[in-house]
Design brief:
This protein has 221 residues and is mainly beta. Helices cover 7% and strands 38% of the residues. It starts with 18 loop residues before the first helix and ends with a strand.
């Protein structure tokens, strides 16, 4: 099997990357890229370093897929309370719209009711964060509860998670009835409007193995 593929069926990432580094490798229209932090004159700026150039790779992979789900915490204590925090990694950058609802992620509790984490950030990248704050001594958890992530843990909840489009504008014929800045002249002096295309909805399903790989957290007293 080659180190890299241009379809989901043969997708694989170079073995010289650590598991943590692979979370920052994703597909764009340029090919496989790695998110890095700039140095020197570009210090602290997030940049995309092209690892393997494959034209329109993002389109070739079709919909953005979830490739990993990871805990952002190592433990949880009932007495102290705290924040359940999880990161969902996609193989392409995605954009989240919360105008009509906020996407959620369900954490399974083996004893008590499950916990619903809300999307808190990451739009425009390939990694989305979901969190839920639980007060100290709250009845939502008990000592020895085992927290895990099952298959298909992400739900849209009337929000959207869309594959980030690289060409989001199309030209349509129209009548110049709005702001002059919104229109251009087409050949033949026909007025045209620049319209934004709808991004393609990403896949939000995830296999049991992805949740299993995240591991579990046992609530302490």
């Amino acid at each position: 099997m080659p180190l890299w593929g241009n379809s989901d069926a043969v997708e694989a990432k170079p073995k010289h990357f650590t598991d943590a580094e692979k979370l920052n490798v994703y597909a764009t229209e340029k090919g496989w890229v790695k998110k890095i932090t700039g140095t020197g004159g570009r210090a602290n700026r997030i940049q995309e370093e092209v690892i393997v150039a494959i034209g329109d790779l993002g389109a070739a992979l079709n919909l953005a897929d979830i490739t990993a789900i990871d805990w952002n915490i190592d433990s949880f204590d009932k007495s102290d309370g705290g924040t359940l925090s999880v990161t969902v990694t996609f193989n392409e950058p995605v954009e989240v719209n919360t105008a009509d609802g906020t996407p959620t992620l369900t954490v399974t509790n083996d004893t008590n009711s499950n916990h619903t984490l809300l999307y808190t950030g990451g739009t425009g990248t390939n990694r989305l964060t979901f969190e839920l704050a639980i007060a100290a001594a709250n009845a939502a958890t008990n000592a020895s509860d085992v927290l895990s992530i099952a298959a298909n843990a992400v739900a849209l909840n009337s929000g959207t998670i869309n594959e980030k489009a690289t060409e989001k504008f199309v030209l349509e014929e129209g009548t110049n009835s709005g702001s002059a800045d919104e229109f251009i002249e087409l050949e033949g002096a026909t007025a045209g409007r620049i319209m934004q295309e709808q991004n393609t909805a990403s896949t939000i399903t995830s296999a049991t193995a992805i949740g299993t790989a995240a591991g579990t957290i046992t609530v302490a007293a």
